[in-house]
Design goal:
Elements lengths: L14 H12 L10 H14 L3 H13 L4 H15 L1 H19 L1
Pfam families: CMD
Organism: Streptomyces evansiae
Protein name: Carboxymuconolactone decarboxylase family protein
């Protein structure tokens, strides 16, 4: 998996936030051996979709695809979430997944 990083343009205004994001979240938590990057991506995408965190969801959908999840698997997870997290959340997530899938296939 390519090394993830916080948006570096944010370092000018929030250097500590970028530092802990890179070192703790992506440097430690994402690298722990208890879950594969693929599984961590599925958990992350599911939580972001369920909580309607659409600003971060697009980025993590791309990471999930890079970590080996397929569009079909992500679609199935989002469909499943619709019944637990709400229809609007699922529709927003599936719209973002379609956009990313279309961009990658172009």
């Amino acid at each position: 998996m390519p090394k993830q990083s916080a948006p570096q343009d944010l370092a000018a205004i929030a250097p500590k936030l970028v530092e802990v994001t890179d070192e703790i979240l992506f440097g430690d938590i994402w690298e722990r051996p208890g879950l594969s990057p693929r599984d961590r991506s599925l958990v992350t995408v599911s939580v972001l979709a369920a909580l309607y965190r659409s600003e971060q969801l697009g980025y993590h959908l791309g990471v999930a695809l890079d970590n080996g999840l397929g569009v079909e698997e992500l679609s199935e997870a989002i469909t499943h979430l619709a019944f637990y997290a709400g229809w609007p959340n699922a529709m927003t997530a599936i719209t973002q997944l379609k956009k990313i899938a279309d961009e990658r296939s172009a």
